[in-house]
């Protein structure tokens, strides 16, 4: 297991804060958004870890590239990319994420790889509380998400092996779960901006505070509201700054008026795209996450990347340094604070961590 820090990176264009919990908004479509193919699968009689069931679970996903079959007829070029909390597959097709990864000669060149971007349970166009069950929707967690992703791949898409699993934030934590639950299913793993430990301390506090703001709001009405409860504004405000860094926010709002305008504009945009039940479910889906107990089950090369200005996973806790040595074929990278990093949202700036993906793909090349 090795630990690395990288030098300052070449300056990137200014990127406004992209929080851990966000709905993707696209002003114009880039080539990858235009080329992505949308599809749905239906999983039946789905059992959740809580004991709850759902007769039919719809999982939406997008793909880029084409599946390739080896001599045995097996798909051998599939890559799974997992989004963050409250987000959706669309976010992984934005230019800042897609352009450094999927073009000719890039590490996930879509002329070579078949890239799959699921909308997780409770997110995007997949089944979620706002579809009609509201607070009667099954209380899913990360294990449920990974198990249904696995079912989608194996039962519906005919994929029994992946070249790579890459995930950001919640998707990074799911990458750890994948490595432990299905050892060797992927040739390589790349979790970004996450930790393998239970969510506690400040991380859980801010999530709990946001959820309680909604739960204790009389307008929430046990999930049977007709219009969004006002407390969704409070919840979104609590989570406002989690996805970026003080250096960035100081730069984009150097005066009091600019800072206040930024809050007003950003929270209003989030409020317009947030459903209270969906919010409660996807925030709470991390409640029993703990990948720290079985890191020894991860047998394939894994490159784990965090950033020093991550408010959600602050490096001063030194959690990564404690657990990284337990990864048999692992590398942990801590990106230093710089004008180029964006706190937790650095996970969406693929140019920053692309060199480590190139290295991971090279050193995890399967034997033929």
Structure description:
- With 368 residues, the protein is of the alpha/beta class.
- It has helices spanning 31-35, 95-102, 142-156, 170-181, 201-215, 231-238, 246-252, 256-272, 276-284, 319-323, 350-363; strands spanning 2-5, 37-47, 53-64, 78-82, 114-118, 164-168, 189-192, 302-307, 330-335.
- The protein has a 9-stranded mixed β-sheet, sandwiched between helices.
- The protein is globular.
- Residues 1-27 have low confidence and may be disordered.
Tell me the layout of helices and strands.
Layout: E1 2-5, H1 31-35, E2 37-47, E3 53-64, E4 78-82, H2 95-102, E5 114-118, H3 142-156, E6 164-168, H4 170-181, E7 189-192, H5 201-215, H6 231-238, H7 246-252, H8 256-272, H9 276-284, E8 302-307, H10 319-323, E9 330-335, H11 350-363
Parallel strand pairs: 1-9, 4-5, 4-6, 6-7, 7-8, 8-9
Antiparallel strand pairs: 2-3, 3-5
Helix pairs in contact: 3-4, 5-6, 5-9, 6-8
For this entry, give a set of tags:
signal, single chain, disordered N terminus, homoserine O-acetyltransferase activity, nine-stranded mixed sheet, Rossmann fold, 368 residues, alpha/beta, globular
């Amino acid at each position: 297991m090795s630990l690395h820090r990288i030098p300052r990176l070449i300056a990137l264009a200014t990127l406004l804060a992209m929080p851990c919990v966000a709905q993707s908004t696209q002003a114009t479509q880039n080539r990858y958004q235009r080329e992505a193919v949308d599809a749905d699968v239906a999983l039946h009689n789905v059992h959740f870890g809580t004991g709850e069931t759902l007769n039919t679970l719809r999982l939406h996903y997008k793909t880029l590239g084409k599946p390739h079959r080896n001599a045995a007829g097996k798909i051998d070029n599939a890559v799974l990319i997992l989004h963050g909390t409250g987000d959706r597959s669309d976010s992984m097709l934005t230019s800042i994420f897609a352009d450094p990864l999927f073009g000719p000669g890039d590490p996930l060149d879509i002329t070579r790889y078949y890239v799959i971007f699921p909308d997780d349970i409770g997110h995007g166009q997949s089944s979620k509380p706002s579809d009609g069950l509201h607070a009667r929707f099954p209380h899913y967690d990360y294990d449920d998400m990974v198990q249904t992703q696995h079912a989608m791949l194996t039962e519906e898409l005919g994929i029994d092996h992946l070249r790579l699993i890459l995930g950001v934030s919640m998707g990074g934590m799911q990458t750890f779960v994948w490595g432990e639950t299905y050892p060797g299913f992927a040739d390589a793993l790349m979790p970004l901006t996450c930790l393998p430990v239970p969510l506690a301390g400040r991380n859980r506090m801010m999530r709990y505070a946001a959820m309680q703001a909604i739960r204790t709001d009389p307008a929430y009405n046990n999930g049977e509201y007709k219009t969004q409860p006002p407390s969704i504004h409070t919840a979104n405000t609590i989570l406002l700054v989690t996805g970026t860094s003080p250096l960035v926010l100081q730069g984009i709002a150097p005066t009091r008026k600019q800072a206040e305008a930024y809050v007003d504009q950003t929270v209003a945009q989030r409020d317009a795209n947030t459903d209270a039940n969906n919010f409660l479910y996807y925030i709470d889906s991390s409640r029993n996450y703990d990948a720290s107990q079985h890191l020894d089950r991860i047998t394939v090369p894994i490159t784990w990347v965090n950033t020093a200005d991550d408010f959600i996973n602050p490096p001063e806790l030194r959690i990564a340094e404690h657990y990284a040595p337990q990864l048999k074929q692992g590398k942990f990278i801590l990106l230093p604070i710089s004008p180029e990093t964006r706190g937790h949202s650095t996970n969406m700036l693929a140019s920053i961590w692309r060199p480590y993906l190139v290295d991971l793909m090279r050193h995890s090349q399967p034997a033929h």
